[in-house]
């Protein structure tokens, strides 16, 4: 599928055309791992509509304002922000716009439990600390429990949206129609937005061109995040192919191509996870120690603390799926879940 010319560096600031009336706007992030998140600006009769909004901070607001200005708009002109999921780099700037200009904000209904349950006084990852202990990663859990909330995290706005996006709903933006599909996995309430007429999928973090999204990193995670994620990938694979408009990375010509790569990746990880158990690893932590991580095939100990948490929890999700499939059996021993061949 044909893509409008894009900058070589996808994080380059500006309003980059995707289709007539649709522009990609990279916004900066306060993160060492991910440097930018894509917002998408869609022209509508009521004013520009933004899909995902960035992290609420001055640099993000300025980058979005500058991009809108090149399109003949101001921040106050934004009619609505449609948010794929309730992570700060997608949701919090939308709430800041609402506070400043009354901008309407909508997000997937499945995000409600995590939005309502978030309490910064309980720490950033209270549920993840519990899960890490169950995975046999007590030392990582202890370190995560003591991570302090930074100023740019503590001060982000965090409230309920003005309205929910429901699976099967059609959002009408004048001549543009966006179909809402629930795609749980990355978060339990993640949604993608599909413009069938223009051949576009606003994929959020569900399908990313260069990385695999984390699973269940939220206050109230899906109890079976990998199963949900794979089902959601197959749902998208069953649709006619479109351009992939991801939250992180460049626009790419085929959603299906990347979905197939992600499905193969997880099949390979399931195989490697099973092999680690057959070789003697018993807990998610032990299996994670036995597996390579990132494209550089680093060890778990070589990862930073946040990535170690994600790696162990992803491993646990793969072990849980293998248990559901009857390949492994699980038993809780003193609060730690151990796996063995069935």
UniProtKB/TrEMBL annotation:
Annotated SUPFAM superfamilies:
Metallo-hydrolase/oxidoreductase (SSF56281)
Residues in domain Metallo-beta-lactamase? 36-248
Q: Which InterPro entries would you find in this protein's record?
A: Metallo-B-lactamas, RibonucZ/Hydroxyglut_hydro, Sec-metab_biosynth-thioest, WH-like_DNA-bd_sf
Tell me the superkingdom of the source.
Answer: Bacteria
Q: What is this protein called?
A: MBL fold metallo-hydrolase
Task: Provide the species name.
Answer: Microtetraspora glauca
Taxon lineage: Bacteria, Bacillati, Actinomycetota, Actinomycetes, Streptosporangiales
